[in-house]
Every structure is written in C-alpha cells, then in structure tokens.
User: Fold Magnesium-transporting ATPase (P-type) from Texcoconibacillus texcoconensis.
Amino acid sequence: METHFLKPKIKEKFIHIILIFLAVLLTMVIHEFGHYITGNALGNSMAMDLNGTRPIHGNFVEKWHLPIVAISGTIFTLLQAFIFLLLLVIFQTQSLYPFLIYPLIYRLVPYIVSLLNPERLGRQDKAQFAQYFGFNPWLLIVPVLILLFIFVYKGTKKVDINWRQISFTTIMSIIFTIIILFINQVIF
Assistant:
C-alpha cells in the first residue's frame, strides 16, 4: 500500500521537473526569438541560438537597431510572464507556475552576477539599451525586475505556492539553465 501511495508523488514530481525544463527552454527561445524577429524586421539578417542573437554579418544595418533589438528580448520575456500570469489566473493550476517564475529568474540571475562581476553588465540587454541612450542601466533593470516580481507574487498567491516549491523550482531552473547553456556552447 505504501508503494502505491508513493507512485503518484513520484509521477507528480517527475512531471513538475519536466515542466520546469520546458519553462526554461521556452523562456530562452522566446527571449532570443524576440531579438531575432525584431532584428529581421528591421532589415538585418540575424543568427540565433539559445544564448544570443546577432547580425550574421557582424553589424546592424543601422546603429540605432542595436538598442531596439537589445530591448526586444526583454519585452518578449515580459509578455511571456504576463501571458502565463493570465493563464495561471484563468486555469488556477500550479503546473503553469514554472513558466511564470522562470522569466524572473532568467532576468534576475545575470544582474546578480553583474553585481559580483561589473564588466558583465554591459553585455546585458537593458544595459545595451541604456548605454545607447546615455542613462544608468539600473533605471531600466530595476523596474523590469519589479514588474516580473509583481507577476510572480500575484501568481504565487493565486495558486498557493509555498516556499519549498519556489525553492525547488528555482534550483531546478538554474540547473537546467546551466545544462542548456553548456549544450548550446558545445553545439553552437
């Protein structure tokens, strides 16, 4: 009887892990696709992988394309988070939660790393946008992170996610991010 009780829990945990992986992969693809589609729409031939998008010929057709393409990934990530918040509110299922929290993790971790290693900040999307227009990148970074946090907070409350679930999802997300980035580096 005890093994019968454990099987649904194991199956549920396995499904949750698969959903976390899919959330990580989908978020990375959506973010990079935002750069890719914007760059192409502006007339640049773009190349994309899971950790970057760039003009095939090395430079943008026009210099002003850089900040627009840079910020578009963040806009797509914000849209993803908003759409998954709406879906979570409508369907009220914890299964959608990884797709809501990962955009925050995906945007937060690089900026935490940038605090520890400041020269990495200039490579980030919002920093490139801010540098082009001559303002402090944190004036854009902080509001985006706050907005993503608000989405996550509202979703967390709506489907009653506890700290243990948040911690597990965050740790697994970071592990999957590292694995995907490693595979991306080897392949591309």
Remarks:
- The CA atoms of residues 43 and 168 lie 42 Å apart.
